[in-house]
Amino acid sequence: MELNSENKSQAKVEIIEFGPLKITGNFLLKDLKRDKEESLGEVLLCRCGRSANKPFCDDSHKK
Ligand code: FES
């Protein structure tokens, strides 16, 4: 998707070392598994694959 001045993302994506992706700002999360789309303001998404609550991080990466 090409970004222009009308649809620029307001979100910030941070890669937490050895942890999740932290997304903050104005964004929509479309979760196909739960068939819903929500605006959360901040979310931590699992990158390690160990979370029991995917796509969200549940701190399993710390174990
Ligand atoms: S990154 Fe935290 S549980 Fe996977």
Instruction: Name the helicity range.
Output: under 10%
The tally of strands reads 5
Average pLDDT reading = 85
User: Number of folding domains?
Assistant: 1
Give a written overview of the molecule:
- The protein is mostly beta strands and 63 residues long.
- The chain has one domain.
- Helix content is 0%, strand content 35%.
- The protein has a three-stranded antiparallel sheet, with no helix packed on it. A two-stranded antiparallel ribbon has the order 3-4.
- The structure holds FE2/S2 (inorganic) cluster.
- The site of FE2/S2 (inorganic) cluster (FES) has 12 residues, from loops.
List the helices and strands and how they pair.
Elements: E1 10-15, E2 21-26, E3 29-31, E4 36-38, E5 42-45
Antiparallel strand pairs: 1-2, 2-5, 3-4
Short description:
This protein is an all-beta fold and 63 residues long. It has strands at residues 10-15, 21-26, 29-31, 36-38, 42-45. It has one domain (11-62).
Tags for this model:
flat, mainly beta, 0% helix, two-stranded antiparallel ribbon, 63 residues
